Amino acid sequence: EWVEGTARSTGIPAVALRAYADASLSAAVERPDCRVGWTTLAAIGAIESGHGTHRGSALGEDGRAYPPIVGPALDGYGFAAIRASELGTALHGDPTWEHAVGPMQFLPSSWQRWAADGDGDGVADPQDIADAALAAAGYLCASGRDMTTSDGWTAAIWSYNHSDDYVRSVLATANDYAARAARGSG
After folding, report:
1. How far apart are CA 131 and CA 45, in angstroms?
2. Between β-strands 65-66 and 58-59, what pairing exists: parallel, antiparallel or unpaired?
3. For the purposes of burial, counting CB atoms within 10 Å of the CB of 79, is it exposed (0-12), middle (13-18) or buried (19 or more)?
4. CB 49 within 8 A of CB 162
5. For the chain (length 186 residues), average pLDDT per consecutive 10?
6. Short-list 7, 38, 8, CA closest to 22
């Protein structure tokens, strides 16, 4: 009931919202000192892929992005130049350059470190929003900072993307989702 009502009030697809909420709840058990909120995860998902809708993709009922979401080549033109790894090539298909993948846009090296099975199907898949959201929560909580503090939250988001503009965008989007969810429940 919460998922359906909050999805309506925020405009977040229910399958994505459930993944963000589940990841936040799992993180509360695994890393109770972190306190990463669903609105933060939802804001990252919105900015990184429009909740799995980047370039015409959509999240299926199973939470997977169809077609798979693959970011631009990190070939040094507008982005860092990062040569493809074996894992990266397996995830995105480019044997030359790395690409961020999935609805939370993980670099293959980050996915290798933080991969998670958020939906319990026995597979950690960066194209699956439940897996990617739980991996993002793990990544954000890695520093051990309390994300309910301004400094802790800012440092965690900065670790995800080293950009002040990105941090501000995530903050504005998370605050918007919180406000819309509160209005929708009232």
Report:
1. 12
2. antiparallel
3. middle
4. no
5. 96 98 97 96 98 96 97 93 96 97 97 97 98 98 92 96 96 98 82
6. 38
Taken in order 84, 85, 86, 90, the sign of the CA dihedral is negative
| Alpha-carbon gap, residue 25 to 61, rounded angstroms | 21
Identify the three-state secondary structure at position 160: helix
The CA angle 113-118-124, to the nearest 5 degrees, is 50
Coil vs helix vs strand at 128: strand
What amino acid is encoded at 155 in this protein?
A
- Burial per residue of 150-183, b for 16 or more beta-carbon CB atoms within 10 angstroms, e otherwise: eebbbebbeebbeeeebbebbbebbebbbebbee
The per-residue pLDDT for 144 is 87
Record the tokens describing residue 97, joined without a space: 């350059």
* CA separation for the pair 26, 72 (Å, rounded): 31
Helix axes 38-49, 164-185, angle to 10 degrees: 120
Q: In angstroms, how far is CA 88 from the centroid of its own chain? A: 18
* Distance from C-alpha of 139 to C-alpha of 106, rounded to nearest angstrom: 10
57 burial (CB, 10 Å; 0-12 / 13-18 / 19+) is buried
